[in-house]
Design a protein that fits this description.
Number of strands: 0
Order of helices and strands: HHHHH
Number of helices: 5
Largest sheet: none
InterPro entries: Terminase_7
Protein name: Terminase small subunit
Biased composition (Basic and acidic residues): 11-28
Radius of gyration: 21 Å
Helix content: 25-40%
Strand content: under 5%
Structural class: mainly alpha
Region (Disordered): 1-28
Shape: elongated
Organism: Nonomuraea rosea
Length: 142
């Protein structure tokens, strides 16, 4: 069966922290960048496509280059809505995939909405098969 890499083990436990720093909105993107350029020249379908992206959760992490990618896609989306074709759809799908359009794309990009405070990587509870080293030391361990 096709997929990305080998299947995970049944008892797999991720011990390394996932770095999500690339998702932090550390850059102030001008509001004009988040608006569809020459919006009135596009069909309602393309405007709805833009609004869907602009209101999505993943757009909160977009940098200026991501917004420019959407700006570049808008004419292609408009052309697709006027005359649907598999080549245009494939290009749109590929570009949207890089921006995290589907659940699978967001999983691959490790995009998730985290409620943890910045810098807090300590889990609330340890997995069952992991020893608590502090408790081990308190009980006289190394």
């Amino acid at each position: 069966m096709a997929g990305r890499g080998p299947a995970p083990k049944d008892n797999a436990v991720r011990r390394n922290a996932v770095d999500l720093s690339h998702l932090e909105g550390d850059e102030d993107v001008p509001d004009r960048t988040k608006k569809l350029f020459k919006r009135d020249g596009y069909s309602v379908a393309t405007q709805r496509w833009w609004d869907t992206w602009a209101d999505s959760e993943q757009s909160e992490a977009f940098k200026a280059t991501d917004w420019m990618r959407l700006q570049m896609l808008a004419p292609l989306v408009e052309a697709y809505f006027r005359r649907p074709g598999h080549n245009a759809l494939a290009e749109i799908r590929q570009n949207e995939s890089l921006l995290g359009a589907t659940v699978t794309d967001r999983m691959r990009l490790r995009m998730n909405k985290t409620d943890t405070k910045k810098g807090d990587t300590t889990p609330d509870k340890l997995p069952e098969n992991v020893a608590d080293m502090d408790l081990y030391r308190q009980l006289g361990g190394a």
